[in-house]
Design a protein that fits this description.
- The chain is 62% helix and 9% strand.
- The chain folds into 2 domains: 173 residues, no CATH class; 131 residues, Heat Shock Protein 90.
- Helix 5 runs antiparallel to helix 6, helix 6 runs antiparallel to helix 8 and helix 8 runs antiparallel to helix 9.
- The longest helix has 80 residues.
- It contains 12 helices and 5 strands.
- The chain is α+β, with helices and mostly antiparallel strands.
Length: 409
């Protein structure tokens, strides 16, 4: 029922405002009649009715000009008190309404200052009339208490509204921050995916082209064979890049027309592509292989792909070993090269790209752990443990996570 009345009031604000003022005026007239009938000497009725009408009519401006309206209604109430009327809440209801509106729109200090001034004015009006002074509880305490109560109610409502506005603003800021965070995370995910696709295939293509150029004079047949595989490498790069960019251009989440995301099932193709670039990769599997969720399968494949790409680009060796170890809780990936140091960038300096950083982010995003660094016996090793159940296992066989010793692309 209250909701229906609220809808009606919000749909007709002028009618609602007029009804409020009429009710306040009716209450003030009722207070005048009560004083006229009960007070000794029967105070004049019509002057009180006129003052009630003036105070009620002034309430129309209480929202835009709260202080002048409060001053006018206070003067009307004081005039009625000096005429001998009993200061009841009905009689000075325009003053209470103006005081509430003022406390609702001004700060706390201003609201209580106006309330004290209005209460003092009514007390002075009562003190000047001996008939009201004899009943000091009704004549003195009662009007002051009602005015202060009206100010307190207005201040309380104002604080509640400010609190609600602050909560709404805070919630809006949180939503904006969450949206911004999601955008950043999505950009990082896209950057990792594009980096893995482009860097891997371009590294293989560069290695194949370099090998073909080296063999062009000494072994032309093998050089031509490598060049034939080079076109397949670039075609695969274009297919993956087209698939990734096409996914980004979609405005829906449908997967129609898209190739499935790569996974460990494509590991033999990856090994063949590395072999075409001159890198001999040995793959060993320990434990019983298990089907992986698509996201985890893609993560495992991308980590192995990026690790082999780093070996192809930077390691001083042409051999690499990939070990997949399955247990009921973890899939451990180990990629090791047979070189004599960490992957190196141009001019023998450690690389400064995003390869190892991307692998670490992928592993941590699935709840796993990641470690990369030099081996005591030589070469470089990447070890990653991915939880098969969605959470990292504290009893896993992965060595403790440590800081990367390189950030090779």
């Amino acid at each position: 029922m209250s909701t229906t009345w609220q809808r009606r009031a919000s749909s007709s604000p002028r009618t609602t405002e007029a009804a409020k003022i009429v009710l306040v005026f009716a209450a003030a007239v009722g207070g005048s009649l009560l004083s006229h009938w009960t007070m000794p000497g029967s105070p004049s009725l019509w002057p009180a009715v006129v003052l009630s009408a003036v105070g009620s009519a002034a309430l129309v401006r209480r929202r835009r000009h709260p202080l002048p309206v409060l001053a006018l209604t206070t003067l009307c109430a004081v005039a009625e008190g000096t005429m001998g009327h009993l200061m009841t809440p009905l009689l000075f209801s325009p003053l209470l309404t103006a005081q509430y509106s003022t406390s609702l729109r001004l700060n706390r200090v201003a609201a209580w200052s106006t309330a004290v001034v209005a209460a003092t004015a009514t007390i002075v009006a009562v003190v000047s009339h001996s008939a009201l002074l004899s009943g000091w509880v009704i004549g003195v305490v009662n009007p002051a208490a009602w005015i202060l109560l009206s100010a307190a109610l207005g201040s309380y409502v104002r604080v509640r509204r400010d609190y609600a506005a602050a909560r709404t603003e805070h919630a809006a800021r949180e939503r904006e921050e969450e949206a911004r965070h999601r955008v950043v995370q999505e950009r990082m995910r896209i950057a990792r995916e594009l980096h893995d696709v482009v860097a891997h295939h371009l590294a293989l293509a560069n290695a194949q082209a370099g090998t073909a150029a080296h063999l062009a004079r000494t072994d032309p047949d093998q050089a031509y064979e490598i060049l034939g595989k080079l076109s397949g490498t670039t075609a695969a790069a274009l297919r993956e890049l087209k698939s990734t960019v096409g996914l980004l251009r979609q405005d829906t989440d449908t997967d129609d027309g898209l190739a499935p995301a790569p996974g460990l099932e494509q590991l033999p193709d990856l090994v063949s592509a590395c072999a075409a670039a001159g890198l001999d990769v040995t793959v060993t599997v320990d434990g019983q292989p298990q089907p992986l969720p698509p996201g985890l399968d893609l993560t495992a494949y991308r980590i192995v792909q990026e690790a082999l790409t780093n070996v192809t680009k930077h390691a001083a060796t042409r051999t690499a070993r990939v070990r997949l170890a399955y247990d009921p809780r973890l899939l451990t990936l180990t990629v090791t090269d047979g070189g004599d140091g960490a992957p190196l960038g141009p001019a023998g300096r450690p690389g400064h790209g995003f390869g190892l950083l991307g692998m670490r982010e992928r592993a941590l995003a699935t709840g796993g752990t990641f470690r990369a660094g030099r081996r005591p016996e030589g070469g470089f090793e990447v070890v990653c443990a991915l939880p098969l159940g969605g959470h990292a296992s504290p009893g896993g066989h992965l060595p403790p996570d440590s800081h990367d010793e390189s950030t090779a692309p």
